[in-house]
Amino acid sequence: MSAPTAVLQLDHITRHRAGRPAVSDLSLRLDAGQVLGLLGVNGAGKSTTLAMVAGALIPDAGTIRLNGEDFVEHPGLARRAIGWLPERAPLWPELTVREHLDAHGRLRGLGGAELARASQRIIERLELGPMSRRLAGVLSQGQRQRLGLACALLHQPSLLVLDEPANALDPVQVAALRGVIREQAAAGTAIILSTHLLAEVTAACDRVAILHEGRLRFDGAIQGDDHKLLEQTFFDIAMRGDGSNDRMQAA
Amino acid sequence: MSVLAVTRLELRRLAVRPLAWVLAALTVAQLAGRFMLLLQIFLSNQIRLAAQPGGPGYTDLVGVPMLSSILTSGILPMLPFGLAELALVVVPLLTMSTLAGERSNGTLPLWFATGLPASRIVLGKFLALMLWLVLWLALTLAMPIALAHGMTLDWGKLASATLGLLLMLAALAAIGVACSAYASHPAIAAAASLMLGLALVSLNVGALMAGLNNGLFNWLSMSTHLDTLVRGLVSSADVVWFVLVIAVALALATQRLAAEKERG
Q: Which of these, A145, A178, A184, A224, has the minimum number of CB atoms within 10 Å of its CB?
């Protein structure tokens, strides 16, 4: 029996930024319901990778397949299939929370009753009701992040791309975010999230990939009690760029 | 459908921005003042004008001058600007944030991630601007048309002038969108589009002063093509000139946006 089609399949993607390779020869596979944590120090290539996966950047080389289809050749696939929350949620300051959801829904092909239902569902799930009439320009950083997440989830994408989603969230909101991630994964959404927080990865992800200087140095499953091993592996790679001495792989 | 989604979003953003309302209020107030002065001049000269066979009428002295000051230069030193002259300043201010604003606000990658082709993003934004500009034009035209029941209005001449203004507004909007696509900041986009608009309008004056008539510089100038339409003569060559300018400007904006997605 053949393996099910991956939601996301990166094959040898490379991308240069400012004249240097930001991501080199990266290959990854992500199946439905999987949560992949992307780790790496600043400048490791995490945000560039996620921007390519979200369709905001085009790779210089390599292929990105979304549900089996070439995403670089058909960028329109992103419209319904991908939800993206960049590092700093990009919002239009002059629009309200409700108007953001409305605009994102329409840009993603929702309309009429379907859009109204989706907006209401996400407002209730992320508890955005009290601020639904407020302008995005006056929201706190944490509220902006929640609105960005709502926009990413609105159209129920098959792939959710989250870049530092816990940025500026308080501990209660971080716990709520983990709940949303688990819920989405249980519903079959493939999730790729980048973070600096190792605890975030062990708490929310079932797989981890570590990038260093644009290259994939580690990719493997993690268990709940792997925090120490993950930390050691991460520091080995980050400090020495050494992926061969890989305790987690051995474990 | 996706173009309409972009247009709808842009219209909403225009509607909640104070700049669009301030520009509309100030310019419509100025045009209302101009209308009153033009009407006063027309009424005080009505008997003398009626005695002239084939002399200028309400359309020549009030209707068309609301749209452009070509026919009234020198008559109204206090309020010299018709809609065409105001558009040279208003359109760059309105278009400056179209794409440069997204860039400085960090929302441009969000547009790329929607999977919409650059052409649809540019077209959607252009259409939203055009709807605002058409409304502006309609408000201006409403003033002379409001008195149409008591005056003899030359509808053909007014329609020709309206078409000229519509094409001019579309050309300036397309140039504004293109400048916004290339500029890193809205203020730079506004300055560039203002300079380009002024250059396109004044090219003809410079060429005529240099003794050039019917040459390349005259053809390149926007005022050469606008004047004909404002005077009531619809020529396909003039319409094609405007369509070409609009198409080239929008194509440049699209190309720049697509290149930006590729370059990152």
A: A224
User: DSSP character for A70?
Assistant: E
| 3-state SS, residue B41 | helix
Torsion of CA B215, B219, B224, B228, to 10 degrees: 100
Neighbours of A77 (CB within 10 A): 21
On the question of pLDDT at B56 being above 90, the answer is: no
List the single residue in A with minimal CA-CA distance to B120: A107
Which chain A residue shows the shortest CA-CA distance from B9? A103
**Nearest residue, CB atoms, A106 vs list B9, B107, B109:** B9
> What is the mean pLDDT of the segment spanning B90-108?
94
How many whole angstroms separate alpha carbon B164 and alpha carbon A227? 70
Contacts of A83 (CB under 8 A, 6+ apart): A151, A152, A153, A154, A155, A157, A159, A160, A161
Task: Tell which of A92, A97, A151, A155 to mutate to test the B interface (max B CBs under 10 Å).
Answer: A92
Q: How many CA atoms lie within 13 A of B13 on its CB side?
A: 26
pLDDT of residue A195 exceeding 90, the answer is no
In this complex, do B261 and A77 lie within 8 Å of one another by their Cβ atoms? Answer: no
Q: How far apart are the first and last CA of chain A?
A: 29
Does the beta-carbon distance from A57 to B112 stay under 8 Å? yes
Residue A18 in this model has a pLDDT that exceeds 90: no
Bridge partners (DSSP) of residue A210 are A39, A218
Enumerate the residues of chain B whose CB falls inside 8 A of the CB of residue A17. Answer: 264
Strands (E), A74-129: 82-85
For residues A107 and B8, give the distance between their C-alpha atoms in angstroms, rounded to a whole number: 10
Q: Render pLDDT for B230-257 as a digit per residue (tens, 0 to 9).
A: 888 999 999 999 999 999 999 999 999 9
B186, B100 Cβ separation under 8 angstroms: yes
Residue B215 has a CB neighbour count (10 Å cut-off) of 12
User: Taking Cα atoms as reference points, which of B188, B143, B145, B192 lies closest to residue B172?
Assistant: B192
**B264–chain A nearest CA distance, Å:** 6
- pLDDT digits 0-9 by tens, B29-54: 999 998 998 888 888 888 887 777 77
Structure tokens at B211: 């003794």
What is the distance between the alpha carbons of residues B264 and B258, in angstroms, rounded to a whole number? 10
Which of these, B232, B159, B233, B244, lies nearest to B200 by C-alpha position? B244
Are A165 and A85 within 8 A, CB to CB? yes
Tokens of A54: 């979200």
- pTM of this structure: 0.88
